[in-house]
Amino acid sequence: MHEEADYKKLFSQPQKFEELLRGFLPEDWILALDFSTLERIGASYVADDLRHRHDDVIWRVRFAAQWLYVYLLIPGQNSGDGFTAAWITSYIGLLYQDLSRHQTPHSGPLPAVLPLVFYTGETPWTAPLERAELQDPVPAELQAYQPQQRYFLLDENAFGERSLTRLRKAFAGWIQQKFLPDWQGADDQNIDELEALQKELAKRAKQE
Fold first, then answer.
1. Alpha-carbon Rg for the chain in angstroms
2. Are 74 and 57 in contact (CB under 8 A)?
3. What is the pTM of this model?
4. Neighbours of 88 (CB within 10 A)
5. How would residue 205 be classed by pLDDT, with cut points 50, 70 and 90?
């Protein structure tokens, strides 16, 4: 299985996406999100340029009296595209462009967007988290005119053992539900559940 695509499918489920935000974002304001309002922003809602970004997941959820859009970027297995902060600025711009097409004079302002980068590569993420770090020093007179953008990094390498175990269990549960609904579990109770599922999938593939 391709890990990025598999994680996209996992976090395309509202329960798993909620678990991701609750379990891995150490922010008090997460408690103010109304997860009963989670709504996936599908391909029919976004512009053509965003539809081609197959490894991105976009949700919206009520935060107090307004909508919050959560843009989840799932990059490849390298140590981070050095220009990720700049690309995210573009992706959010495209999202706003599409939302504005459906706005009316009475629709109100554009919503807030929380950009998340979920990284599962083996090497640590090295890309800057802020767009400003990608630019040459800006004269004080021009700083007010420069775009500001920061993203929240979820680096699997930095997860503690407890958090990583919780993530693996969520992933394992999705794999079993999707591909092995009749599987009764591993005979060896000491084996990792995700590892056992992968071995069972490989065994069944050989039998086909």
1. 19
2. yes
3. 0.72
4. 21
5. low
Confidence of residue 192 (pLDDT cuts 50, 70, 90): low
- What pLDDT shows up at residue 69? 95
3-state secondary structure the chain: CCHHHHHHHHCCCHHHHHHHHHHHCCCHHHHHEEEEEEEECCHHHCCHHHHCCCCEEEEEEEECCEEEEEEEECCCCCCCCCCHHHHHHHHHHHHHHHHHHCCCCCCCCCCEEEEEEEECCCCCCCCCCEHHHHCCCCCHHHHHHCCCCECEEEEHHHCCHHHHHHHHHHHHHHHHHHHCCCCCCCCCCCCCHHHHHHHHHHHHHHHC
